Amino acid sequence: MKMLINGRLKGEEKIEIRNPYNNEIIDKVPAASKEDAIEAISAAKKAKDEMISLTAHRISEALYDTSQELKKRSKEFSHLLALDSGKPIKAARDEVKRSIETLKLSAEESKRIYGETIPMDAGIGGKDFMGFTIRLPLGVIAAITPFNYPLNLAIHKVGPALASKNTVILKPSLKAPLSALKIGEILNEYFPPGAINVLTGKASIIGDEILKSEDIDKISFTGGFKTGKMIAENSGMKKLTLELGGNDPLIVLKDANIEKAVEGTIRGSYLYSGQICIAVKRIIIEEKIADEFVQKLVKETSKLKIGDPLDPKTDIGPLINEEAAIKIEKLVSEAIEDGAELLYGGGRNGNLFEPTILDNVKPSMRLVKEETFGPVSPIIRVKDADEALKVANSTCYALQAGVFTENIHEALRFASELEAGTVLINKQSTYRVDHMPFGGFDCSGMGKEGVKYAIEDMTRTKLIIFNKN
C-alpha cells in the first residue's frame, strides 16, 4: 500500500506490516524520506487556498459522501482492522460504525462554524460601532495517530480538520497503518489534491520535519506521555492538542450494584485486550464488598474466549506485538513478587496474554502507577470512600474515571473531586461518545477532541468592527 502525497499515491513499499495474531505479512508500506515529508507539507500549504474557496455545504457533502463510501466498504475495513491491529472482529466492526458516525458528525459541524455579534456600546462612542466575529481555519494540521483505534482516531483528527477548511498531514502508527492509508485514498477522491496527505515511516524523520516546519500550524497527537512532552517542548508556536493516555480508575463503593460493576470491569479491562487509553487500569473497591465482587469477577472473566481476532466468538485477541505482551508479563510477575495475589490468568503465548485478575494490589506497584496497556484487572482494596478518592487521585494522569455507587451524594462528590477530564457514574471509563468533548488534564494532555470541540481548536477567531458613521 502506498502513501498519499499531493493527490497521488507514491513510495516504494519496504516496511512489512504483520498480523499481530500469527505474525504473517499482510502488506508493505513506504518509509517516507525527509523529502517526502517536505513535499507533503508543501502540498498541504499550497492546497489551503482551494480549501478556503470551497463552500461549507460542498465540504459537508464531501465528508458525508466519504462516510457513505466507508459504510459500503465496512466489511472490508473491519477485516483490515482485525488483521492490521489484532482487534477482535466484533470490536473492529464497532470501530468502523463509530468512524462512519464521526465522519457524518464532521459533515454536519462543517455547516455550524459560527461567529457572533459583539455589543460595542461599552466604550467611548461605542454606539457608533458594530462588531462581529468570524472563525477561520488555522491552515495545515499535522495529525499523528496511534495503533489502537487506527481508523476512528485518524477520522477524529482529519474529519474536523477538513470540516473547518484546514489541510492535513496524517502520520499513522507503523504498528497499524493500513486503515488510515485506505481512508486517505477515499477522502482524496472528494477533496482537492494536497488537502489530505498520508505519510508512513519513521517518526524520527516525519515528526522532525513536522516539528521544525513553519508551515505547520497545529499538531494533534495521540500517544505516549514522553513523546507528547517532547512535542510540546519542540513545537515552537504551533497550536497543540495532546491526548497522552490515562491511568483510569474504576471505583466501586460499598453501596454499588455489584453485578453492574463487574460487567463494567469486564468491558473496561479487557476491551481490545486493555490496549485503550481509557481502559480500566485500576479497580479501587471498598473492603466490605471486595470478596463478593472478586468472586463474581473471576467467574465472568473465565467465560471470555481468547484467540483468533477473525473468529466472531473471540473476546480477547493478541496484543499489538510480542514486546507489548512481554512487558505486561513482567509487570504482572513483578506485582506478584511484591505481594499481589494472582486469582486468574497471567499466562502468555506469543502475543496473546490471558485476561488476568490480581488481588491485594498496592497503589505503589508499577502495574498501577504507570499506564498499563494490557488485559489486567488489578484490585486495590480500600477501607472507605475517602481512601478510594485519595488513591484514585494519586497519579499524574487524569483522563477518565468511573464510579459505581447508588448514593447520589457520593456520586456528586466523586464527580466534583475526581481529577479527570470525564467522570462517569455507574459506567466504566471506556465509554466515549464521539460528539462530546474528550481529553484529560495534567499528564493526560491538553485540548479536546470530539468533532465540535476539535473544530474550535482548529480555527481562530477574527473580530471585525464597522464604524457606522
TrEMBL record:
Reaction(s) catalysed by this chain's protein: (S)-lactaldehyde + NAD(+) + H2O = (S)-lactate + NADH + 2 H(+)
UniProt entry tagged with the keyword Coiled coil: no
Matches recorded under Pfam families: Aldedh (PF00171)
Tree of life domain: Archaea
Enzyme Commission code(s) on record: 1.2.1.22
Sequence similarity: Belongs to the aldehyde dehydrogenase family.
Protein name: Lactaldehyde dehydrogenase
Species, as recorded: Methanothermobacter tenebrarum
Gene name as annotated: aldH1
